[in-house]
């Protein structure tokens, strides 16, 4: 098999192939990344809390934005870590460390946004429920 045939094998030929690759990536992240499973469980809890507390449409938009951003950034972080590990041959390199730390920092920033969003939406409701 020449290199041109190999390129065609991995090229997205149609929408279904693209969807298959994307779903494989999502399921791989869930299966192999501990933090992704934590985000998935937290997301389910937030969705359940949104139903229980009957949040407004605008609040749903912010909750869903938060959930999808954290998951997307976690997938990107994992992809960056894998590429850096591959490029550095799993040997310590300061540039590799910086790249991985920055990708993790991006996840942290988005996670803080999600946490603040959740606090703004749910704290007043919990407060009213308790007092």
From TrEMBL:
It is a multi-pass membrane protein. ATP binds at residues 33, 81, 100-101. CDD domains: UDPK_IM_like. The chain crosses the membrane at residues 40-56, 62-84, 105-127. Keywords: ATP-binding, Cell membrane, Kinase, Lipid biosynthesis, Lipid metabolism, Magnesium, Membrane, Metal-binding, Nucleotide-binding, Phospholipid biosynthesis, Phospholipid metabolism, Transferase, Transmembrane, Transmembrane helix. The keyword Transmembrane helix applies. Its cofactor is Mg(2+). This is Prokaryotic diacylglycerol kinase.
């Amino acid at each position: 098999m020449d290199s041109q045939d190999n390129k065609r094998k991995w090229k997205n030929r149609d929408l279904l192939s693209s969807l298959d690759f994307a779903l494989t990536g999502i399921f791989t992240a869930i299966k192999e990344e501990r933090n992704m499973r934590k985000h998935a469980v937290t997301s389910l809890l937030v969705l359940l809390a949104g139903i229980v507390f009957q949040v407004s449409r605008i609040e749903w938009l912010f909750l869903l934005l938060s959930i999808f951003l954290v998951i997307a950034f976690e997938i990107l972080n994992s992809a960056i870590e894998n590429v850096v590990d591959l490029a550095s041959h799993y040997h310590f390199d300061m540039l590799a460390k910086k790249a991985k730390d920055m990708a993790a920092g991006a996840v942290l920033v988005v996670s803080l946004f999600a946490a603040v969003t959740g606090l703004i939406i749910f704290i007043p409701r919990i407060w009213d429920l308790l007092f």
